[in-house]
Amino acid sequence: MTMTRANLLIKASPWLFTIGLLLFWEAVVRAFNIPTFFLPPPSLIAQAFVEFWGPIARNSWITLETTLIGFGLAVGFGLLLGLVVGWSRAIYAGLYPLMIGFNAIPKVALVPILVLWFGIGFVPAVLTAFLISFFPIVVNVATGLATIEPELEDVLKALGASKLDIMRKVGIPRTLPYFFGSLKVAITLAFVGSVISESVASNYGIGNLMLQAQAQFQVPLIFAGLVALAVEGIVMYALMAVLEKRMTRWAQRSGFSQT
Amino acid sequence: MTAFVSLENVSHAYAGAEGAPAVEGLTLDVAEGEFAAVVGPSGCGKSTLMKLATGLQFPFKGTVTVAGERVSKPVKIAGMAFQAPTLLPWRTTLDNLLLPLEIVEPYRREMRRRKPEFAERANNLLGSVGLRDQGGKFPWELSGGMQQRASLCRALIHEPKLLMLDEPFGALDAFTREELWCVIRDLHASRKITVILVTHDLREAVFLADRIFVMSARPGRVIAERRIELPRPRDLEVTFTTPFQDIVHELRAHIVKARQ
Ligand SMILES: Nc1ncnc2c1ncn2[C@@H]1O[C@H](COP(=O)(O)OP(=O)(O)OP(=O)(O)O)[C@@H](O)[C@H]1O
Ligand SMILES: [Mg+2]
């Protein structure tokens, strides 16, 4: 009985904390008379949400689309490159410094180049989302492949297993938890990428909407944009988490090492 | 007596490794059906010996022959088990046992058609090591000792002529270890399989082996060879007798000397 009550509390706890934070925010803004153009209270943000529902919904959709296409590219390309990199020590050694160097570049710095090549709008946003989110996927897939227990490899090689056999029977299955684990990180980063690009080089998307709201000093609308992004981010993250759980049940139950 | 596994004056150095070779001038013969044990100080090249005999590594000098053929690629007639059970956590124990059959010909080709028959064989094997009806469990649902038994079964499923064991019981408690000694003893007796066992445990070596090779410190070679004449089948009680203890002491003296 107490068990179920404790469980219920844990289930309800995220909602309670969120509501608590909003109430606290509202109270602070009112108590200290903080100007709404500085920090609007949640009630005003909600109002803006309702008032500008049309543009918010339309632009959220565009941002989501952009992000998902970039993310999809990152999954495909990241998986492929990860397999290649994890396949051989030589390729791993050769590409590793390149990838580290590439990852060290702040992706915002690439947006002007992308705009130069593709013009402003949809394409650079997709590419920024892609570029920023593919790295964790590559690294995780490559790590999964590169950390096969050498003894297990010996057992299989002694049976005459080819490299492809070892990858199919061991490498790829054991890489799945790493891969699905990396998707949660990657989807979050993909949102960062698309919004950055939208806010500097696009006429659409939540990033652009927030920029325009700022220009017109509609501070509640800026925050409403943030909320829309947060909701999208949480939903996609949760989807990835469910996917991970579904696909790699054995890893969670066996305490398989994960990064 | 013709040798089933034979290493002749073998030297091997790992690529990129510095200093002395891992093994140098290593010579050793194991007859068909014989149970050989290899003991020696840590890092002397015992695992290297295993890799040389199974075609996972190739010497820069000397020859390795298994079943009358010079080893130039992985020998497929060997089964291996190590200190870590290395079972795949996403497969049930039964499916783990079937893994070698998915790789070795001719089983590989026949996997689809003869799967029920192979599963039956795997289940019988599990039964013979005291794991009957555990095949449906995942490895992480088994204890360490049970996993090690399953790993032994995986080494045996394709009916290898040669069983290579590299400190297979190193991570187990004393009682489980003795239990598994008996499992191995019975497997060897019933299948007439050739076994090479690497171990740090001298009692284990004396209890199980027909012949024990003592290796020197790196670079490893055989510095002593001891035939164990204790009558078979051996019971665990034999480990408490004086002749047994004398052999253990004698071997210990060799190792102590090898370490200096
Ligand atoms: N893959 C490798 N690359 C380079 N050197 C290696 C490699 N494997 C082993 N060695 C070296 O070769 C020597 C023999 O190693 P090996 O693993 O055969 O020893 P061992 O007798 O099995 O030791 P232990 O009893 O500790 O298992 C060691 O000095 C080791 O450092
Ligand atoms: Mg070893």
Question: What does the model show?
Answer:
The complex is a heterodimer of chains A (259) and B (260). Chain A is mostly helical and 259 residues long. Chain A has helices spanning 2-31, 42-51, 53-87, 89-104, 111-118, 122-146, 150-158, 163-201, 205-215, 219-247, 249-254. Chain A starts with a helix and ends in a 5-residue tail after the last helix. The mean pLDDT of chain A is 90. With 260 residues, chain B is of the alpha/beta class. Chain B folds into 2 domains: 1-77 and 161-260, 3-Layer(aba) Sandwich (Rossmann fold); 84-159, no CATH class. Helix content of chain B is 35%, strand content 22%. Chain B contains 7 helices and 10 strands. Chain B has helices spanning 46-53, 93-98, 107-128, 144-156, 174-191, 202-208, 242-259; strands at 3-12, 23-31, 35-39, 61-66, 69-70, 78-81, 162-166, 194-198, 211-215, 222-227. Chain B has a 6-stranded mixed beta sheet, sandwiched between helices. In chain B, strand 7 (162-166), helix 5 and strand 8 form a beta-alpha-beta unit. In chain B, helix 6 (202-208) crosses helix 7. The radius of gyration of chain B is 18 Å and the shape is globular. The A-B interface holds A 149, 151-152, 154-161, 165, 169-170, 173-174, 250-251, 253-256 and B 51, 54-56, 73-76, 78, 80-82, 84, 86, 88-90, 99-100, 102-105, 138-140, 154-155, 158, 164. Residues 14, 17, 22, 42-48, 218 of chain B line the site of adenosine-5'-triphosphate. Magnesium ion is lined by residues 46-47, 166 of chain B.
Q: CATH superfamily of chain A, called what? A: MetI-like
Q: Catalogue the ligands.
A: adenosine-5'-triphosphate, magnesium ion
Extract low-pLDDT stretches of chain A: none
User: In sequence order, what are the helices and strands of chain B, one letter per element?
Assistant: EEEHEEEHHHEHEHEEH
CATH class of the largest domain in chain B: Alpha Beta
- The number of distinct structural domains of chain A comes to 1
Would you identify the CATH architecture of chain A?
A: Orthogonal Bundle
Broad CATH class of chain A: Mainly Alpha
Q: And the CATH topology of chain A?
A: MetI-like fold
Strand content of chain B: 15-25%
How much of the sequence lies in strands of chain A comes to: under 5%
Contiguous uncertain segments of 5+ residues of chain B: none
Give the chain pair forming the largest contact, with residue counts: A-B, 22 and 30 residues
Query: What is the number of E strands of chain B?
Result: 10
Q: Average pLDDT across residues of chain B?
A: 91
Mean pLDDT of chain A: 90
